[in-house]
């Protein structure tokens, strides 16, 4: 997959994307895990779509922040164009280390990325550092829409 506009994510855009993810955390519904997560997706046209985790008393029905954001994007008619993703969680958990999307979310992100042929930059945000990694490094040899063609 190509890198697209994600190759030129400047510091200002990165900071704005991280702030959008941090703002999304405030809307999380996490009464069971007390682990609030926010995600922000940046698209080629500059649009930013956010999501937060939404837990359910039937734990298996809970939704991760990245999945919520991708569902919102697809529900708005977006089919590709994903440049970058920022994911952040609680600064007081896990020693404040950067968090990465879970396996399910990596696959969900891969779906929308493959629709546009991009390999988005994933910003894994911690309390004092941000790890920058391509989705293809988080989910090598991914299965996606192209496999079904």
Molecular structure report:
- This protein has 149 residues and is an alpha+beta fold.
- It has one domain (4-89, 106-129): 3-Layer(aba) Sandwich (Cytidine Deaminase, domain 2), CATH 3.40.140.10.
- It is 30% helix and 19% strand.
- The chain has 4 helices and 5 strands.
- It has a 5-stranded mixed beta sheet.
- The radius of gyration is 14 Å and the shape is globular.
- The model is unreliable at 1-7 (pLDDT under 50).
CATH class designation: Alpha Beta
Considering the protein shown, what is the CATH homologous superfamily? Answer: Cytidine Deaminase, domain 2
Broad shape: globular
* Strand composition percent: 15-25%
Characterize the biggest β-sheet: 5 strands, mixed
Helical content stands at 25-40%
DSSP strand count: 5
- CATH-defined topology: Cytidine Deaminase, domain 2
Total helices: the number is: 4
Structural class: alpha+beta
Provide the low-confidence segments as ranges.
1-7
Q: How far is the N terminus from the C terminus?
A: 16 Å
Mean of all residue-level pLDDT scores: 93
Please state the second-level CATH architecture.
Answer: 3-Layer(aba) Sandwich
**Rg over CA atoms:** 14 Å
Secondary-structure element order, N to C: HEEHEHEEH
Characteristics of this structure?
alpha+beta, Cytidine Deaminase, domain 2, 149 residues, 19% strand, globular, disordered N terminus
Can you give me a brief rundown of this structure?
The chain is α+β, with helices and mostly antiparallel strands and about 150 residues long.
Give the SSE map.
Blueprint: H1 11-25, E1 38-43, E2 48-52, H2 65-75, E3 82-88, H3 103-116, E4 121-125, E5 130-134, H4 135-138
Parallel strand pairs: 3-4
Antiparallel strand pairs: 1-2, 1-3, 4-5
Helix pairs in contact: 2-3
């Amino acid at each position: 997959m190509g890198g697209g506009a994600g190759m030129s994510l400047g510091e200002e855009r990165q900071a704005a994307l991280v702030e959008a993810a941090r703002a999304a955390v405030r809307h999380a519904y996490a009464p069971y895990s007390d682990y609030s997560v926010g995600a922000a997706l940046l698209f080629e046209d500059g649009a930013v779509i956010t999501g937060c985790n939404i837990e359910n008393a039937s734990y298996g029905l809970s939704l991760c922040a990245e999945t919520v954001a991708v569902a919102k994007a697809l529900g708005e008619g977006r089919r590709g164009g994903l440049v970058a993703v920022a994911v952040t969680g609680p600064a007081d958990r896990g020693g404040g280390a950067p968090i990465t999307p879970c396996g399910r979310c990596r696959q969900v992100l891969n779906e929308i990325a493959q629709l546009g042929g991009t390999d988005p930059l994933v910003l894994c945000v911690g309390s004092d550092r941000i790890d920058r990694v391509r989705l293809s490094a988080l989910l090598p040899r991914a299965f996606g829409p192209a496999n079904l063609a």
